[in-house]
Amino acid sequence: MAPPNNIWAQIIQQATVNREVLKQQDVIKSLQNVLQTNVSVCSSLGDPYLSQMVHMADTMLQLYKFYSEDVTAAISSGGVHAARSSFVKYMRSVKKSILRLIEVFVEKCENEQLLVQKFVPALMGPILGDYASSVPDAREAEVLSLFAAIIRKLKSQMEPEVPQVLQAVFEPTLAMITTNFEDYPDHRLKFFSLLHAITNHCFKCLFAMNPAQVKLLIDSIVWAFRHTERNVAETGLLLLEDLLKSFASSDFATQFHQTYYTHLVREVFAVMTDTFHTPGFKLHCKILMHLFSLVKNDQVIKAPLWDVAAKGPTAYPNNAAFVQEFVCSLLASSFPNMTPVQTQSAVAGMMAIEDKRAFKHHMRDFLVQTKAFGNAETDQLYADETAAKIAEAQARLQAIPGMVPPNQVNDDMADS
Hints:
Elements: H1 2-17, H2 25-45, H3 50-83, H4 86-108, H5 112-133, H6 141-154, H7 162-177, H8 185-201, H9 211-226, H10 230-248, H11 253-272, H12 281-294, H13 308-311, H14 319-334, H15 340-352, H16 356-370, H17 375-381, H18 383-398, H19 411-415
Helix pairs in contact: 1-2, 2-4, 3-4, 3-5, 4-6, 5-6, 5-7, 6-8, 7-8, 8-10, 9-10, 9-11, 10-12, 11-12, 12-16, 14-15
């Protein structure tokens, strides 16, 4: 590492005399090359890269802060056009490379105590604080993926830091991505991946949120699975699935479901029954089946889901009866072409079926009954089965020598 370290040291030495050196294009390219070299070395070496990271960490964060300030100043004064200028892009390339190097190091480092006690606290100001204070066009999506990687690595050890992470990224990022479905595509996926990591590994931190923040969280997840971009919608559904399972096993299960149960049932049915979200059909089924299973007994939700103040505590014999009536009413209003008998029969099946495959078939039959789907959309509902049949047929052919051209043989088969 002597050559890149020497280049790095020379640039830092020059910058201590005149910071404007760091704005020169050839200097930025040299920094970029050194950082990319370090990313490659860290990926290959793994944990032994620690000594090199210790050598670079402080100056690297100083560089990050310098370029952050310049990028923010340029965009604040020049607007969107400045964000697209080559000068700003060059400076941001250094920031992105620094974030990538830190992320790879976190993934490879085996000394978790060192990460918890030294490296993570050092990132909070220069990186997390910068993200929160920067103008939207100057925020790096890689900050979100970096902290998702840290949380996946350190799991519950990150719980003390998660509130600060959420404070810095939650509302600022939501304000960027919920204006429309097009702007900031990288931030969308990485933001929900970060929330997914927090849900899976630091779930208790969500209990510290106030009701308004929890509502904002749920609204953001609903917004995600409504998205017409398949990757974003799928990420939102996966996040919702894990969040529901975590809340179901927590002490807040009753309170959470009293607030959000009917809202989430309505929203999942809304995307399931339109023709824009058929790729998520399998996850729609899993989530609805989970929600329906919760009301089959009072072990998880231990209080009425209906409005007791308006209807009284004895309006329904149990939550299952209330949910069945609620879903019947919801579907009857959405699909007036279905008879009451058809609707009631469909909902009764949804509530009674406990086998995942049978539930999926039942929901598919229901969607066909609604007549909201044409032939093309109906075919997509069978995508899993079609893919399984194709894979099975290919496997049979590959088992017979000479039946499949060499260029079509799976890599696993070719290597064996």
